Amino acid sequence: MALYVLRRLVSTIAVMAMVGIFIFLLLRLAPGDPAAIIAGDTATPEMIANIREKLGLNEPLPVQFAHWAHSILSGNLGISIFTGRPVLELISQRLEPTISLAILTMILSVTIGVTFGILAAWRAGGLVDRTLTALATLGFSVPVFVVGFFLIYFFAIRTRWLPVQGYQPIDHGFGPWLVQLILPTMTLALVYVALIARMTRASMLEVLSEDYMRTAAAKGVSSYSMLFHHALKNAGVPILTVIGLSFAYLISGVVITETVFNIPGVGRLVVDAINNRDYPVIQGVLILASGMYVLINLAVDLAYTLIDPRIRY
Amino acid sequence: MQMQKLAGNDVLLDVRDLETHFYGEESVTRALGGISFQVRSGETLGVVGESGCGKSVTALSILRLLPKLTARTVGGEIRFHGRDLLKLSPREMRQIRGNRIAMIFQEPMTSLNPVYTVGHQIAEAVQIHTKASRSDAMAKAREMLRLVRIADPERRVNNYPHEMSGGMRQRAMIAMALACSPELLIADEPTTALDVTIQAQILRLIVDLKEHTGTAVMFITHDLGVVAETCQRVIVMYAGRIAEQASVTDLFARPAHPYTQGLMRSVPDRRHGRQRRLPEIPGIVPSLREPIVGCSFAPRCPFAIGICREKTPTLRDIGPGHAAACFRAEEVMGG
Amino acid sequence: MTISRRDIIKLSVTTGAALSIPSVLRAQSTTPAARTVRMVKGNVRIFDPILTTSADTYDHALAIYDTLFGVDANFVPRPQMVGKWGVSDDQKTYTFELRDGLRFHDGSPVTAADCVASIRRWGNADSGGKVIMARARDISKKDDKTFSIVLEEPLGLLIDILAAPGGLFPAIMREKDADRPATEQVTANIGSGPLKFNEALAKPGASFTYDRNEQYVPRKERPDGFAGGKIVNIDRVIWDNIADQQTALAALQAGEIDFLRDPPFDLLPIIENDPNLALQVLNRAGDTIFLRMNCLQKPFNNVKARQAMLHLIDQEAILQAAAGSANYTRTVHSLFGVGTPYTNDENTGWFKKGGDPEKARQLFKEAGYAGEKVVMLDSTEYAVAHNANQIVAAELRKIGVNAELATTTWSELVTRRAKKEPVENGGWSIFVSSWSGANLGDPLGTPFFAANGDKAWYGWPKDDEYEAVRAKWVDTETLDERKALAREMQRRWWDFVGAIMLGNVVPPIAHRKTLTGLIGVPKAVVPMWNMRKG
Amino acid sequence: MSLLSASAEAAPKGRLQLSGLPRLARRHPLVFIGGGLLALLIILALAAPLYASDPLNLYPFKRLQPLSAEMWLGSDNLGRDVFARTAFGARISLLVGLTSAASTVLTGLLVGIIAGYNRRFDSIAMRIMDGLMSIPTILLALALVSLTGAGIGILIVAITITHTPGTARLVRSVVLGVRERPYVEAALCGGARLPKVLWRHILPSTIPALMIQSANLCASAIMTEAGLSFLGVGVPPEIPSWGNMISSSRLYLPIAPWSVFAPGICLAVTVLAVNLLGDGLRDLFDPRATRRR
């Protein structure tokens, strides 16, 4: 087990190195000169050249990369070109809203998605199944920003039940924090409910046709226990896998949701950074997002052992 | 249906005109075409026949474990202690399953839940049907494992199914089925998937436990040899109907249905320890999707005459406790 | 509070809860909602006003810095930080004395040395400022409150330039900040203006918080444009950056924000119908949308092709697409926009309702246009220009010009428009942007007006006769002199067509009715003083 | 009994009639409905010039007009015909969806098959795939689109790069599973050359998984396109695609709902069709999943 974790961590480092090189090259080759943007409308070419010099944008690519890699490894994600603040500070300032949104969304979509998936599989082909399949398809086919608008319209403008936008840090109180996040969470969760419900349904259908489910029925186990204990635990591995893999999709959804609901999270930070060509920020966020993805999937792999005794590392 | 009742034995299970259909996308399969039989307290009833003849469907119909969306019991009654199981609510049915009627299955490798320990699965059955505490149930599980002669039950109780051999798993299945001392145990080909030597041990175990507990057993198999060793009475099934019904001695002495005779000819010689799959009867089993005119065995029957292809024979008494569904039963028995 | 702040910090440090320190600070500085105004108006990306002319940076600087002079609503310069000033008889020495009570947010007094350093830094970057620097022999402090500018030659425009709202914001900073080169960002955000920047609550890209500067001593005059008394009636302004317009409007409707700078034109009826909301035009000069052509490359290196564009444009159609409502748009005939002191009607015969596509087709033909690709840079972020672009492209295609929209972000547009190469090598033919009245009323500070070829603003028009006229501007003494000069410039401009006006939009701002006392300035910025809430 | 004989009589007759499409419709209704809808949409998209006007025409004085005989689905914020744009938008959206799916599947197939067969390539390729997989799709797409500016081509490339790892892994796992099968070993021992074995024996076994995957990819690509348009970096705005129609008209939803609903409903129907097809194909190729029905 420890050896496995160690081996996985080593390969994680290799993956992260790939990501690093990829991200660095990608953004340095992009057009759009941050110096020109900083300089503004009235800038003369000399001013732009001066700014480039200051930002180290004139150095050859390998030199820029070496500087960058060195500082990343020493825990320094660099300084934002635009705001002049450390990238790490900018990101950590934005981390709480994004993580709050991601965790709430995951809790909501796992609870609802798994329940729906189980219900659909239980009565496969029945009314519940068909309704849920239709809902799941809808969840996949309506863009997040449209869903967001409708939720804002009905729950915030029409009824005034919930706030339109913004974020309250959790240390201002759990209530305000939750209230602010209800609509964004619902918006973002729709797709994941659909995704997890579909995976749960498929996985459950497979499990429900297994011989041991018949054995359980022959013992007199209740339907509830059949579904939620005997079947769910067996169906757990693929469901868990989807949850792990969908983390990357979740971040994609977060970018749009944060824009719609004006949540000052990492997603907004990176969209702004891309528009501004604020390289250090983009790189910092991408590195961080990939790192989290890799770690979450490592955690998921380890969690398999808790669910399925046949899996040992 | 005239069935001669043996005096002194209570009828535990009385199945009457049981009809079960399977629904495919374009067809209906008449898996059971109206069968009737009885199981008496403490007896061992063998049910034999080729694959697909409806043995397992009968068992699943009794416990109402058929797949909900594709199969339905469309007619008949299943009286258990006089109450029709088909009319029970799901909740009442659950109180019967595993408690008063238990079942063990053909595939020990896949019939245990891989993510729970064996002890947990046995204890679960106990906890569902008695008010036993968790620890009492686990104690019962250990006791049951000892009863089915699993070595080191203290350790094995915490094993997962994948940590056990096939024979051991089937023992665990039996332990689970018998944990609540059921009145009827339905054993659906419990030894088919096992090695020959293990098979004999498991058979021995079932017979011993039956004697020990007094449970009635409905023993489903395709192996007449097994029937001969374990059962008192036998039902021979063919194409969703009962072909012949008799005591074991009568059946082997005077088989009255051509199909039974065919089966007997293909029984492997157990003294040589050889094992062969049934049957070696020429021809194929008819499709149950098509309507069958006449006797369903007629196309394969060496005794078939004109009437056999026009009318469907019904089960009729041809001796004390002996019935067969054949127009020429007497000739078959005599010949 | 019975526990002192020190106790709390000590406590949280000893318990190791370092993370809770910011929340303690926040809790202490929380102000009641009624005294806090939440505004949505763009996003500050750069804090140093000497680095960019961006309106958002200007807005930020306007709140935290003060200036020596400021123009009123009629573009007349008025003293702001300066108490008294005078000019020597030879018109070469200007002496300024600061008024009393000026203090930076860090508590230090504003001194003449700070002013001198600030003027130098600004003068090296601003195009009007460069005129001063070129003529100045000496800029130095006399005593703590007095400094002087000594010129080689008289410069009648000196005060106008110092007050000019068209170029870079002439912020007075601390000497140690102003000593930095003009290319290096000042990050201290410490000025002497009526509001203080709350560094602890700054969330770049999300929101910035400005607190009332309790120590600020406003002038006694009533507020008027950038001039007059800057009295802050509220405790705090939170400047939210809501990127999505729909969300911003919803937030305004729900009362989560008090002010929205750029409500989408098509949704104005929704605001008008909302009993809690009001629309108000603050910037009466509006924004003039213009189209710039690359005069170095085909086809617009030919003056006939540029004239063709002048005749092609149907301003009403563009305004309709750009802003929808006729209530908030005007056609523009003058090089100096609408409502500036220099707006005039010289040589505007080209203007025709509905445009003149036939004439344009004819002129393109005379220009020898042979189907060359015309690349139009189109940023989707700037809705008005984006919509205008689509109309112009459609009109061009109708008369057989091979117009192609190149979609970019604004930042890419800014990068790409600096390229002088042909379109095949990543160059461009047309881009659309806008100037505020403050810019079009300031031909010295606004680079748009130059026509000196390579050295001119993007598009690089070249006309020597026009340049000769424009060169006289610096030495004009009176407004009438300048007005006459403006007519002369415009006469030439519409002949060689250095740029084309597409129309003038007067965007109203939307606010909750509880927010009052907003004052207008001839620029797309909104001063944070004078307003009241409740 | 009568019920039984009636159905039994009907069965053979019915079966004779069951051939081709009706049979597909009865046996696999999802494949039929999904595939049919998709085919219909493709035909409508291709035939757009025959029944819709020029989607690029602007009528600035007819902005945000409601539905009328002249403009069936009204006009958008620049006075463009929503019906025409929706019809032509189908071309872009389907092009993006189908091309992305196709190119992703091809790339994934190539990488997956080679990785499944070559250990050395495998370890390198899979690390790279892990890397690409760990970058959130929209972020990578944003970064890629900002490389060369918005455009259909770059959008397809962006989607392909971000979705290839999943497909490659899928193919690789199928190949790893198949290559130990006796018939493959037999073919190799029998002297068949590797490419031929790959083509004849291994490729076909990846098809079921890939069919399902491409349906999912197609839907995902169409949605990603819409999302990128929302963030302002999708297909150039004058070119109609459902994604950018929705995102540019979204603002006018309260006053001109048709300009959002027309492309929105089309998008939903397309994604629905593709998803139905995907579900149907899964059932078709993997009947186990529905066995219990």
Number of strands of chain B: 12
Order of helices and strands of chain B: EEEHEEHEHHHHEHEHEEHHEEH
Question: What is the arithmetic mean of pLDDT of chain B?
Answer: 85
Work out the count of structural domains of chain C: 3
Q: What is the C-alpha radius of gyration of chain C, as a whole number of Å?
A: 25 Å
Domain ABC transmembrane type-1 (chain A): 95-304
Protein name (chain A): Peptide ABC transporter
Keywords (chain A): Cell membrane, Membrane, Transmembrane, Transmembrane helix, Transport
Membrane topology (chain A): Multi-pass membrane protein
Q: What would the keywords be for this entry?
A:
heterotetramer, B: 335 residues, alpha/beta, 8-stranded mixed sheet, 4-stranded antiparallel sheet, 11 helices, 12 strands, 23% strand, globular, disordered N terminus, D: 293 residues, mainly alpha, MetI-like fold, 12 helices, disordered C terminus
How would you portray this structure in words?
The complex is a heterotetramer of chains A (313), B (335), C (534) and D (293). Chain A is built from twelve helices and no strands. In chain A, helix 1 runs antiparallel to helix 12 (279-307), helix 5 runs antiparallel to helix 10 (223-260) and helix 11 packs antiparallel against helix 12. In chain A, 52% of the residues are buried. Chain A is an all-alpha fold and 313 residues long. Chain A is globular, with a radius of gyration of 24 Å. The longest helix of chain A is centred in the last third of the chain and has 38 residues, at 223-260. Chain A has two domains: 2-73, no CATH class; 88-312, MetI-like (MetI-like fold, Orthogonal Bundle). Chain B has 335 residues and is α/β, with parallel strands linked by helices. Chain B contains eleven helices and twelve strands. Chain B has an eight-stranded mixed β-sheet with strand order 6-7-8-3-9-10-12-11, with helices on both faces. In chain B, strands 2-1-4-5 form a four-stranded antiparallel β-sheet, covered by helices on one side. In chain B, helix 3 (118-129) packs across helix 4 (134-147), helix 3 runs parallel beside helix 6 (166-178) and helix 4 crosses helix 6 (166-178). Chain B is globular and about 65 Å long. By secondary structure, chain C is of the alpha+beta class. Chain C folds into three domains: 66-175, Dipeptide-binding Protein, domain 1 (Alpha-Beta Complex), CATH 3.90.76.10; 195-280 and 508-533, D-Maltodextrin-Binding Protein, domain 2, CATH 3.40.190.10; 287-505, Dipeptide-binding Protein, Domain 3 (Dipeptide-binding Protein, domain 3, Roll), CATH 3.10.105. In chain C, 30% of the residues lie in helices and 19% in strands. Chain C has 17 helices and 21 strands. Chain C has helices at 5-14, 20-29, 55-64, 112-123, 127-135, 158-163, 175-178, 245-253, 268-273, 303-312, 315-323, 357-366, 383-398, 410-416, 437-440, 464-471, 479-496; strands at residues 36-40, 69-71, 77-79, 82-87, 93-98, 136-143, 146-151, 195-197, 207-212, 236-240, 259-260, 277-280, 287-293, 329-330, 374-379, 403-408, 430-436, 500-505, 509-512, 515-516, 532-533. A seven-stranded mixed β-sheet of chain C has the order 8-9-10-1-11-19-12. In chain C, strands 14-18-13-17-15-16 form a six-stranded mixed β-sheet. A four-stranded antiparallel β-sheet of chain C has the order 4-5-7-6. In chain C, strand 2 (69-71) and strand 3 (77-79) form a beta hairpin. In chain C, helix 4 packs across helix 5 (127-135). Chain D has 293 residues and is mostly helical. Chain D has one domain: MetI-like (MetI-like fold, Orthogonal Bundle). Chain D is 74% helix and 0% strand. Chains A and D meet through helix 1, helix 6, helix 7, helix 8 and helix 10 of A and helix 6, helix 7, helix 10, helix 11 and helix 12 of D. Chain A: InterPro entries: BPD_transp_1_N (IPR045621), MetI-like (IPR000515), MetI-like_sf (IPR035906). Chain A: It comes from Microvirga vignae. Chain A: The chain crosses the membrane at residues 9-27, 99-122, 134-157, 177-197, 235-261, 281-307. Chain A: Residues 95-304 form the ABC transmembrane type-1 domain. Chain A: Belongs to the binding-protein-dependent transport system permease family. Chain C: GO terms for molecular function: peptide transmembrane transporter activity.
